[in-house]
């Protein structure tokens, strides 16, 4: 199993367990997240770029992988991704660089799998 499959499988498995707990607050939070990234005044592509930049600044590798996957799904190019990376690095500073390295690695895997 490669890194992308491993991440997506683990995320799906654990989300299912979390949802099976039937906790109203957690379900509402997950729903809020889903609705936040839906098409609205901003298109999905823009929202995913914002989510990716914020995730990098907050240094959440799982969030970075998730948003990279979504950015790939909505058709961002390598050039666009690196502009998002540059914004995140500027805002977050040098502490973002280790996450930037892993993000580049994950993006390359997405490109290999998706043929971009």
From TrEMBL:
One of its GO terms (molecular function) is peroxiredoxin activity. Residues 27-105 form the Carboxymuconolactone decarboxylase-like domain. It holds the Pfam family CMD. This is Alkyl hydroperoxide reductase AhpD. It comes from Mongoliitalea lutea.
């Amino acid at each position: 199993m490669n890194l992308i499959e491993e991440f997506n499988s683990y995320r799906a498995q654990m989300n299912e367990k979390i949802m099976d707990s039937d906790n109203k607050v957690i379900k509402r939070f997950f729903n809020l997240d889903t609705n936040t990234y839906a098409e609205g005044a901003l298109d999905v592509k823009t929202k995913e770029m914002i989510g990716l930049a914020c995730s990098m600044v907050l240094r959440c590798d799982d969030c970075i992988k998730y948003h990279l996957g979504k950015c790939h799904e909505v058709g961002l190019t390598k050039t666009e991704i690196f502009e998002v990376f540059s914004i995140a690095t500027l805002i977050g500073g040098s502490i973002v660089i280790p996450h930037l390295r892993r993000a580049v690695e994950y993006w390359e895997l997405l490109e290999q799998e998706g043929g971009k």
